[in-house]
Amino acid sequence: MRILLGSLGMLAVLAVGFTAAQEPQGPSPPVPPKASPAPPKALQFDIDRFFRDFDRNRDGFLSREELPEAYRGAFERMDANRDGKLSRSELANGYAFLQPRRRPSDYVYMLIEMSDLDDNSPVEVQRAYDILRSLDKNRDGKIDPEELKTGRDSIVNHRVDYLFNQLDADKDGRISREEARGQIRENFAEIDRNRDGSLSREEMRQAILEKPALQGPAPSVSPRGTPPPARPTDR
């Protein structure tokens, strides 16, 4: 799940935190990014219309009973002043609570929905399918915890190998402070758990697996979920 979200603090550091690495691109040609158009007006949340549709007594507020039944569970979170009714400003600030909570697996639905149906779109959807199918080692149509752990270990070990191939200049099996680059050098002391002045494969592995901090902005980098590590962008 952390792989799909791409929200590991130290994983972002290790995936992009050095300047020397350059990963070859895969066989698929790069697709130029397109500007994201604004959502159609019909799909935008219209507060005035929402009030027209559901403010039955026309008092300028929405009670719990006036909300559609599917939305009533979010009432307390939206009612900021706890007065038992929603104002326009409370609805504007809290309407996100009316949206269904996204799951990491919804990425697949988004990938399909946002496809342009060009030649590259089936390739990307097929790639997602192949990644998941490769985890199902016993071919029973399900991914159990042990299979997921095996897949995660394979990805992490590949990342560690890649980093050592790029940074371990003297090939002694450790990364010294002088060999480290970018954010790996900046976070060297945190990664070097035994404080011996060099980074072992296990220390790098633990840093990749470390959970993100609970505060602060999420990293903007989304590591790729297959064994090849993300292309470095830290310059």
Characterise this structure.
This protein is mostly helical and 235 residues long. The protein has a domain at 45-98: Orthogonal Bundle (Recoverin, domain 1), CATH 1.10.238. 41% of the residues lie in helices and 2% in strands. It has helices at 2-5, 9-16, 47-54, 75-78, 88-94, 106-113, 120-135, 145-167, 182-186, 188-191, 201-209, and strands spanning 175-176, 198-199. Strands 1-2 form a two-stranded antiparallel ribbon. Helix 2 (9-16) crosses helix 11 and helix 8 packs across helix 11. The longest helix is centred in the middle third of the chain and has 23 residues, at 145-167. It starts with a helix and ends in a 26-residue tail after the last helix. The model is unreliable at 1-36 and 213-235 (pLDDT under 50).
Secondary-structure map:
Elements: H1 2-5, H2 9-16, H3 47-54, H4 75-78, H5 88-94, H6 106-113, H7 120-135, H8 145-167, E1 175-176, H9 182-186, H10 188-191, E2 198-199, H11 201-209
Summarize this entry quickly.
The chain is mainly α and 235 residues long. It has helices at residues 2-5, 9-16, 47-54, 75-78, 88-94, 106-113, 120-135, 145-167, 182-186, 188-191, 201-209, and strands at 175-176, 198-199. It has a domain at 45-98: Recoverin, domain 1, CATH 1.10.238.10.
Oligomer: single chain
Q: Which residues form runs of ≥5 with pLDDT under 50?
A: 1-36, 213-235
Bin the strand percentage: under 5%
Q: Please tell me the CATH architecture of the domain at 45-98 by its name.
A: Orthogonal Bundle
CATH homologous superfamily name of the domain at 45-98? EF-hand
What is the share of helical residues? Answer: 40-55%
H-E string: HHHHHHHHEHHEH
The computed structural class is: mainly alpha
Quick one: overall form? elongated
Mean pLDDT over the residues: 77
What would you report as the Rg, rounded to the nearest angstrom? 24 Å
Q: What can be said about the biggest beta sheet?
A: 2 strands, antiparallel
Do you know the CATH topology of the domain at 45-98?
Answer: Recoverin, domain 1
Question: Termini, distance in Å?
Answer: 28 Å
Say how many strands there are: 2
The main sheet orders its strands as 1-2
Number of helices: 11
Identify the CATH class of the domain at 45-98: Mainly Alpha
